[in-house]
Amino acid sequence: MQMRLRSGGTEGLLAEKLEALITQTRAKQAATMSEVEWRGRTVPVKIDKVRIFLLGLADNEAAIVQAESEETKERLFESMLSECRDAIQVVREELKPDQKQRDYILDGESGKVSNLQYLHSYLTYIKLSTAIKRNENMAKGLQRALLQQQPEDDSKRSPRPQDLIRLYDIILQNLVELLQLPGLEEDKAFQKEIGLKTLVFKAYRCFFIAQSYVLVKKWSEALVLYDRVLKYANEVNSDAGAFKNSLKDLPDVQELITQVRSEKCSLQAAAILDADDSHQTETSFQVKDNKPLVERFETFCLDPSLVTKQANLVHFPPGFQPIPCKPLFFDLALNHVAFPPLEDKLEQKTKSGLTGYIKGIFGFRS
């Protein structure tokens, strides 16, 4: 096992020979293994391939913990999952249609499923738990890459919060499948444990969804999601109690709470600064006076009123403007002119006027 671990995985001729040697040794040990105990119930193991897998389960888990590189861990996870799938397939073949009908029938006295079906549930539990650990390990690697990434490095695709969200979605789906395993419907402790694990991974999924909203400056949505993270984390802390041992291998919820509180302060500051910048940008281009459009053609500014019925285009009615008027000539010399006397002419005109009138009546004309 140590040589296989140092070889870096399951590739190469030496690694293949080591795998064959380990398998042969486990096959010899499998002859002494007759049963397995899980969650207070002991079930017989009669299938050799399942015995070999269960004997090497602890060694595989220890090898994964001791692996130094992420590539080695990934190979060991894949190898373990492949062996588990093979074991499940063998058990599934034993559950033939006619026998399967009997195996699924609950015993009226004990209320338990058959041993073969319970063994199938146990192997499925191992497969799903291993898949969760593998995805969790990948999520930790992506988190480290997010913290260490350099924005100017465009040579390769940098990790994003959306990648972590996808991994946590898969983990939550695996937890849902764990709750549906036959034979564990009445196990309240198991249901409670899986429920707490679901809350932990929901909190982390919600945290990275909030991070993705922060990147696009959706401050309100991110703040609501951070509050949801705190809600999930506080529920885990209040309900953990007797399940702390089963939750110790999961991501630290208390560390997440501290990080969320820090992120909330940073988010609120960024939101205030962004709102101030956007306000300054808008006001710098908006109309600051009541000048009509005709007087500010040379200056660009945003005036939403121009597309309304009250558009300020020109002054109406137009204002009065002074203009030069037509000159007036006053005859000031008239006051200094001496006219000749006309009294004699006025008297003569009066006399001749009466005589001429009488003559005109009687028809005498001169």
UniProtKB/TrEMBL annotation:
Signal sequence range: none
Pfam families cross-referenced by the UniProt entry: SRP68
GO biological process: SRP-dependent cotranslational protein targeting to membrane
GO cellular component, one term: signal recognition particle, endoplasmic reticulum targeting
Example of a GO MF term: 7S RNA binding
Origin: domain of life: Eukaryota
Family matches, as PANTHER family: SIGNAL RECOGNITION PARTICLE 68 KDA PROTEIN, SIGNAL RECOGNITION PARTICLE SUBUNIT SRP68
Protein name per the record: Signal recognition particle subunit SRP68
Organism for this UniProt entry: Sapajus apella
Originating gene: SRP68
